[in-house]
Amino acid sequence: MQIDIVSLITIFILAVFVGNEIINKVPPTLHTPLMSGSNAISGIAIVGAILAILVDGGEISKYIGLAALICATINVVGGFLVTDRMLKMFKKK
Fold first, then answer.
1. Which of 87, 89, 88, 83 is nearest to 34 (CA)?
2. Distance between CA 7 and CA 18 in Å, rounded?
3. b/e per residue 14-50 (b: at least 16 CB within 10 A)
4. What are phi and psi of 49, to 5 degrees?
5. DSSP annotation string for 1-40
6. How far apart are CA 76 and CA 2, in angstroms?
7. What does the pLDDT look like over 47-91, one tens digit per residue?
8. CA angle 15–86–78, rounded 5-degree value
9. SS3 call for 89
10. CA-to-CA distance for 60 and 65, rounded, in angstroms?
11. What is the pLDDT of residues 2-46, one digit of tens each?
12. Domain residues of the chain, as ranges?
């Protein structure tokens, strides 16, 4: 199964725009509670990025997949850190 580079770049750009619009519409008070949902979506993005790296689409698709993998991994780790910090605020001392 071979996917052309134009399709991969188009999907990546659309995902960036949709993600940006969704995040900008969320009020700041809801960002932390939505972090767990964001982690789940980023987990799916990690799987998709790994598939993009493994598909024989050329060198550019491997680099784009690697960039997507790095970005999604940073998002997951950051989400867990923010969620952990939020949960520590509610623990009794």
1. 83
2. 16
3. eeeeeeeeeeeeeeeeeeeeebeebbebbeebbebbe
4. -65, -40
5. ----HHHHHHHHHHHHHHHHHHHHHS-GGGTTTTHHHHHH
6. 29
7. 888 888 888 878 888 888 899 899 989 988 887 887 788 778 777
8. 35
9. helix
10. 8
11. 678 888 888 889 988 988 887 778 776 666 667 667 777 788 888
12. 38-93
Structure tokens belonging to residue 24: 């900008």
Report residue 50 as tokens.
């790994």
**What count of residues does the chain have?**
93
- Angle, vertex CA 12, rays to CA 8 and CA 13, nearest 5: 120
* CA separation, residue 20 to residues 34, 61, 82 (Å): 15, 22, 19
Q: What is the pTM of this model?
A: 0.59
What is the amino acid identity at position 59? E
